[in-house]
Amino acid sequence: MKISLKIWRQPKRDADGAMVDYTLDEVSDDMSFLEMLDVLNEQLIAEGEEPIAFEHDCREGICGSCGVVINGEAHGPEVTTTCQLHMRSFSDGDEIVIEPWRSEGFPVLKDLVVDRSSFDRIMQAGGFISANTGAAPDAHATLVPKDNADRAFMGAECIGCGACVAACPNASGMLFVGAKVTHLGELPQGQPERHARVVAMTEQHDAEGFGGCTNLGACSVACPKGIPLNVISQLNRDRQRAALRSSD
């Protein structure tokens, strides 16, 4: 099939950017979206032009680095990562608009590549436990109720891609923070630092320039791992409990 592309081009972080038009012929339905960009880049290189910079790593939907906004939707029209999106989701003659994440917390480095190290700093602020669990048998000796274990695993599924930020009209990363807080807060090993953790991570979230939660729910809809909105409720409850403890 033949498709028209409008892609954001920006040479470096502090430079101005603009949408640039491209046309690509003979696109196979079986191509992944990133394979289509690879083909376009081969064409650009052959024509002596600068290839389009885009981020990717695993191409298996587990690393979260491939995120772009496609026709106004984070990761595109399917609820999946960009690398798992296939061209059969589009039709012959379609125009596809491709942009980077838009957020103060995710500055554009080049073309479709954004700096997502703000999420790393949020994790460094409190997304860990310091409990000594010993060897594997010692860790297994601490029983975790199945409901808590299931919810902890659900929070751990978050890959930190940033689709929640891209989908939120306020560019909030609260779904990401809520998932990480829920993951550790449901486990016995996560209890000693539970309240300090939520304070540190939410404060770092705000310091990075992300907005507050709008309760719109677009973040959960766009999440390729289906993280539910109620992790933000758990985040807010833990934050309130931390405030009450500090006031005692």
Model description:
This protein is of the alpha+beta class and about 250 residues long. It has 2 domains: about 110 residues, Ubiquitin-like (UB roll), CATH 3.10.20.30; about 130 residues, Alpha-helical ferredoxin (Fumarate Reductase Iron-sulfur Protein, Chain B, domain 2). About 40% of the residues lie in helices and about 10% in strands. It has 9 helices and 7 strands. Strands 2-1-5-3-4 form a 5-stranded mixed β-sheet. α6 packs antiparallel against α7. The chain is elongated and about 65 Å long. The mean pLDDT is about 95.
What is the compact description of this entry?
With 248 residues, this protein is an alpha+beta fold. It is 38% helix and 11% strand.
SSE topology:
Layout: E1 3-9, E2 18-24, H1 33-46, E3 69-70, E4 73-74, E5 95-99, E6 108-110, E7 113-114, H2 117-126, H3 136-140, H4 146-156, H5 163-167, H6 174-185, H7 194-207, H8 218-222, H9 230-247
Helix pairs in contact: 2-7, 4-6, 6-7, 6-9, 7-9
Determine and state the CATH class of the largest domain. Answer: Mainly Alpha
Structural class estimated from helices and strands? alpha+beta
Shape: elongated
Strand percentage: 5-15%
Into which percent range does the helicity of residues fall? 25-40%
CATH homologous superfamily title of the largest domain: Alpha-helical ferredoxin
* Through-space gap between termini: 66 Å
What is the CA-atom radius of gyration, in angstroms?
20 Å
Mean pLDDT metric: 94
- Element string (H = helix, E = strand): EEHEEEEEHHHHHHHH
CATH architecture of the largest domain: Orthogonal Bundle
Low-confidence stretches: none
Total strand count, please? 7
Major beta sheet summary: 5 strands, mixed
